Structure formats: structure tokens, C-alpha cells
């Protein structure tokens, strides 16, 4: 059954209803060199909301604050209907050791900055943006819970942290009666699947909805790059475009082009675009609640929203999986090997029915 932006899903173990594709706003503003000007960003916002989209993703430092400011301006008329998600930890001032990071002082300062930039008096979903190993988990969770009790934040979540720390945080929150983490935002796409080793199974077990970022690997999965891009002309790195960023971040490699070849083949069979196939693949993972789509133009956004209608055959899914699979490593490979395989919950249900 095709999905729509208003086929809302529950986010993790919360009662919060969110669209199956979130709108990423790192492209709102041109300060990072590859975004959209105000009027174009407004069109992206309007298109998404008109189709029933309610889940919008930003961060306190995206495009040096322009993303939150533009979002606050665009959301003014329907603030109550939107789920605005932002993130803290990256608001750093040179020379100030207490700016940035997950600790309590940074948390409270960042939330105040986001509230001002978003021109709102509450944040629906607050993520810890980037984990570091300096702050005790109790300090983070208690700070987040205080903000929830103050009404400045409604739900809390985490992005970019080790699975074992997130699991430990969730167990601590449960035992202390603090606000649980309801979402896990991670890089997850056909090129970056290592989240399947620990992060995604952990999230399913612990009640966090997975919200993949860069679901198109920065655009690599749209098929718009070719092997010629591997030999970048002098000066291409650091020229500020998304292409140079993708090259610098290793999204354009021979392995990745081989994956994109299969994405293209499947797209041609379905009469869809590679971008739609890439996004739809991420969306079909049962642990995933809503990929955060990135678009710079309304045409790209329109294209990406078409992913909601894609339905794969089993053989297409197997080919996409085969081209992109990563080794799960120990202990998962031992636990799934025929000789050492242990019963899964699915097996036990079958036995119980017999
Ligand atoms: N939690 C985190 O640490 C984290 C990290 C990164 C991102 N995020 C969130 O995730 C969102 C999405 O990330 P992302 O921008 O990396 O996503 P992405 O979908 O992997 O890449 C988006 C880029 O691909 C290109 N593109 C998108 N759709 C296209 C289409 N249909 N056809 C051709 N090109 C297309 C555009 O770049 P060009 O047109 O410029 O080539 C666009 O800026 C961000 O806005 C942000 O909200 C979170």
C-alpha cells in the first residue's frame, strides 16, 4: 500500500504522530555553500506541509542559525500542527570550553538559542546531536528531563552515538523515571549500512524510532554522479559544493558506484527515479520511522516524495541488499550462522502455534 506524508506513524515508544518522511532543513540558507535562498526554502516548506508533512528537522547551528530562523518564520501560522525537531551540542564559541558538547550548561544555552531562533516557546523533539565521552549519562538525561518538565521540550532523542551508550541511557531513564529517548538519528542508506550491526537492533529493542539522515548519501544515490567525478579537477575539493563535500567524505567510490548501478537498474524496472528507489529502500526497514530527506529545490523534493509510492518485488529487494550488504561481524555472524543459530522470537511464535 503506498504511503503518503499524512500516513502518520508513532515515533518510537511515544504517542507522537509523525510523517513517514521528515523534511531536512540543512539546505535552508546558503551559508554552507550548497543550500537554498529564503524564497526557495519557503517553497520546500510549503510543498512539504501542503502534502500533510508534519515532521521537520533542524539543528541549532545549521547554516549558522539561518535554518532555524527561516523555519521559525515559515512555521508561524501553523506552529501547533508541526513537530519541530532540533539538536544541541554543536553551538561552540572559540576559547569557551563550556560552549558545545552534551553537558548541562551547553544543553540549556543551546535550547534557549534554538527557542529564540525558531521564535517559539517549545521544541517538540530535542536530539543530542553528537555524542562525546565527557559527560555522565545521568547529567544529560536529568538535564533533558528538566527541560521537559519546564515545558520547553516535549520529547528527547539522540543522534550519532554508540549503541551501548544509548542503550545504557535508555535503561537509566527508565529506572529513574526520566523522559525516555524516543528517536535515534543515524546515517543510514544503501551505501552506509553499518547501523544494522548494533544501532538499529538496539533501537527496536529499546523503543527508539530510527530516523535516518543522508538517506541519499548526500546525493550519491540519485545517480547524478559518474565515475568521472572520482578524478576531481584541481580545486574541486573545498569549493563548497555538495559534490566536493561528497568527494571529500568518500561518498563517491567504486564500491558506491556499483551500488548505484543496481539502484539505477531497479529504478528503470519500476519506472521510478534512482532517488526514489534509494529513499524507499531505507523506508522499508521495519526499524525505520522516517528518513530525513534533503532537498535543495522543489523539483528534488517532489522527486523524493515519490519514494512513498515505491513497492519493491522480493527479487529487487534481494538485489539491492546483495549489492550493498555489510558484514555484520561478531557476534551477529555467529548468532545467525546455521551451526550456532539460536531461536529468534519468530521461531518461538511458530513453535507456540504448533
Ligand atoms: N544528525 C545528523 O548528524 C545529521 C547529519 C546530516 C544531515 N542531517 C539531517 O538530514 C537531512 C538530510 O541530509 P542530507 O542533506 O545529507 O540528505 P541526502 O538526501 O542524502 O542528500 C541531500 C542532497 O542530495 C541532493 N539531492 C536530494 N534529492 C535529490 C534529487 N531528487 N535529485 C538530485 N539530487 C538530489 C541535493 O544536493 P545538490 O542538489 O546540492 O547536489 C541535496 O542537498 C539534513 O537536512 C538534516 O536535517 C542530520
Structural class: alpha/beta
User: What's the quaternary structure here?
Assistant: single chain
* CATH level 4 superfamily: NADP-dependent oxidoreductase domain
User: Span from first to last CA?
Assistant: 31 Å
Main beta sheet, described? 8 strands, parallel
Binned strand content:
5-15%
Topology (elements, then pairings):
Layout: E1 9-10, E2 17-18, E3 22-24, H1 38-50, E4 55-57, H2 66-74, E5 83-88, H3 104-118, E6 123-128, H4 137-149, E7 153-159, H5 163-176, E8 181-187, H6 199-206, E9 209-213, H7 242-248, H8 254-270, H9 274-283, E10 292-293, H10 298-305, H11 314-324, H12 332-336, H13 345-353
Parallel strand pairs: 3-4, 3-10, 4-5, 5-6, 6-7, 7-8, 8-9
Antiparallel strand pairs: 1-2
Helix pairs in contact: 2-3, 4-5, 5-6, 8-9, 8-11
The structure holds NADP nicotinamide-adenine-dinucleotide phosphate (NAP).
